[in-house]
Amino acid sequence: MTDQPTAENTSAGEFLHPRYWATWAGIGTLRLFSLLPIRILFGMGKVLGKGLYLILPGRRRIATINIQRCFPELSSREVVTIVRESFEVTTTVAITTGITWWASRARISHLVHLHQAHYLTDALAQGKSVILLAPHFSAAATVSIYLGTLAAGISIYQRINNRLLDKFVLRGRQRFGSRMFERKSSMREVIHALKNGACLYYLPDQDPGPRRAIFAPFFDIPTASWPVLGRIASMTNAIVIPCFCSLNRDRRGYDITFDAPLDNFPGDNPVADATRMNQVIESAVRAMPSQYFWVHKRFKTRPPGRGRLLPLTDSVTEILS
């Protein structure tokens, strides 16, 4: 496995093929957006998010079912409010991607606001290996890029089928010195880098599929979870520091909040470790539910004998009316 994965080798003219024209148009749009004041992009993101909420019924349904199941105490209107806000947050983060790809270090530092950063800086000053437990809040990729300015960062990366987009995403995420490791590759170099002082930015809360999953509660739902966090922490003697990112609409930027390192972690039981991990994520999601990436099919893989999750009401249309 290479340190820095790149898009597959291509001839000089391959990216000029018509199949990439739409991608080039999207990249060009992001480049233009990156030159705009952040307050304008935040306003655009809110408007576009409302539009996407209306025209993407499939993703709206996924988010609705996820939020219903995680927050069964909420009324239908409260669920709809969180779904709508999450679309606005996700869209805003998407159209500000160009800022993290092209803006200067000074501009990005001005937009990012750190909270309780001493948890990270103290650990690094003591020479400890650090794993940042970072749930999939919508601004997670932006934070990953910025953290490269604070420490020698590494992260797990899933290759994108569109090789042109893959090329730009990788270049953006590695621009401040972070190193990316392909998700399906061996973990040996990740372990080696951690042991040598790198800080791992680790996002574990996506469905791993039935082959690699263990089941641990998340919002009291038996949820397919990655059993990797405790294993890596044990192999590297790393401390695990929760790290939460969010879009700050009032200050027109991004918040990164660190929490105290997990004590007595990992243990000797993978399910208990995954449960502890999910509890940390759940607590953060409860604090800022509209920031979470709800459009992902988080509960797609179900325990044996359990059917797929359905809406709590007879019809999602009833909720959205």
Largest sheet: 7 strands, mixed
Span of the ends, CA to CA = 50 Å
Strands, total number: 9
- Share in helix: 40-55%
Please tally the helical runs, counting DSSP H or I stretches of 4 or more residues.
Answer: 13
Our count of domains comes out at: 1
Order of helical and strand elements? HHHHHHEHEHEHEHEEEHEEHH
Stretches with pLDDT under 50, minimum 5 residues: 314-319
Give the rounded overall mean pLDDT.
89
Widest sheet: strand ordering: 1-9-8-2-5-3-4
Instruction: Report the structural category.
Output: alpha/beta
Q: Mind telling me the C-alpha Rg?
A: 20 Å
Instruction: Please indicate the percent range of residues in DSSP E strands (runs of 2 or more).
Output: 5-15%
Overall geometric form: globular
Secondary structure layout:
Layout: H1 21-33, H2 38-55, H3 57-70, H4 76-95, H5 97-102, H6 105-111, E1 112-115, H7 118-125, E2 130-133, H8 140-147, E3 153-157, H9 163-173, E4 179-182, H10 188-195, E5 199-202, E6 214-218, E7 221-225, H11 228-236, E8 239-248, E9 253-258, H12 270-287, H13 316-320
Helix pairs in contact: 2-4, 3-4, 11-12
Structure in words:
The protein has 321 residues and is of the alpha/beta class. It has one domain. Helices cover 45% and strands 15% of the residues. The protein has 13 helices and nine strands. It has a seven-stranded mixed sheet, with helices on both faces. Strands 6-7 form a two-stranded antiparallel ribbon. The termini are far apart.
